[in-house]
Design a protein that fits this description.
The protein contains 6 helices and 13 strands. It is α+β, with helices and mostly antiparallel strands. A hairpin with a 2-residue loop joins strand 11 and strand 12. One of its GO terms (molecular function) is acetyltransferase activity.
């Protein structure tokens, strides 16, 4: 059964619970540091990965928050949405298409995340994206916003908004694009051929994606491509050694929050 106190204890949070910016910022970062992203279960879900966008809250809570497994965007952002609503925040469901290796974007309904309005300002709230991305919520604005050595902007592109990230080296890179409006879960009931085809491509590739944040960055494992983002610097290695690969997987999915560079 979903339990706010158990959830907050899992995140190691003991502060105030009023719906304010400091609370949102602290909970967001703690969530990314505590509960990992893990796409392993998607391998058993076939070509309809979004059949449970409207998650079974109690079941998912028992498996992820209490049971300790990682989750994907629908689960992690779904649980966090319920937590925020129970604390008095007003939360909208958003969706996005993530940037692919060839520079294109996935289908509009591919990635599920949240948005919160506080004192008239709209924030992007996303604890279910493996990264590299923001550790604390960012304002829906094209003004540069600095976090831990990275700079983020949300720019217009026709009817879309595009999330951009720039580290200490190089220029801005696209992360994902979205339409700035609340989504209904009914939109995923008939997701369309593009989303099904996208899911089939993911299944065929068979690449597992895992990630967890730490105090000044993120650890991201896509297959054997291991990216550590620390203070705005990206470090990429390919983990050829099986023992090292298992060690990194255990670090990301385990209970420790130590840094690995």
């Amino acid at each position: 059964m979903f339990d706010v106190d158990v959830y907050l204890a899992r995140l190691g949070y003991t502060g105030p619970v009023s719906p304010t910016w400091p609370v949102l910022r602290d909970l967001h970062k703690r969530h990314l540091m505590t509960i990992p992203y893990d796409s392993a279960l998607n391998a058993t879900r076939g070509d309809n990965l979004w059949s449970n966008v409207d998650i079974d809250v109690d079941k998912t809570f028992a498996e992820v928050v209490v049971g300790g497994r990682g989750g994907v965007c629908t689960e992690l952002n779904g649980l966090f949405r319920v937590l925020l609503e129970r604390l008095g925040f007003t939360v909208d469901v958003y969706s996005a298409g993530t940037r692919q290796l060839d520079g294109s974007f996935g289908p509009d309904l591919e990635h599920v995340f949240n948005s919160v309005v506080l004192d008239g300002t709209r924030y992007l709230v996303d604890v279910g994206f493996v990264g590299p991305s923001f550790l604390e919520p960012i304002v829906l604005s094209d003004e540069p916003q600095e976090q831990y050595g990275n700079v983020f902007r949300v720019v217009r592109d026709g009817g879309y908004r595009v999330l951009l990230r720039k580290g200490r080296r190089g220029d801005y890179q696209q992360t994902y694009r979205f339409r700035p409006r609340a989504r209904s879960f009914d939109e995923w009931n008939d997701p369309g051929d593009d989303l099904r085809e996208f899911a089939r491509g993911l299944a065929a590739a068979g690449t597992l994606v895992r990630g967890r944040a730490f105090e000044t960055g993120q650890r991201i494992l896509i297959g054997r491509r291991y990216v550590v983002v620390d203070d705005g610097y990206d470090h990429l290695r390919v983990l050829v050694n099986d023992d090292e690969h298992r060690e990194v997987v255990a670090e990301i999915l385990g209970t420790g929050h130590g840094r690995r560079t």
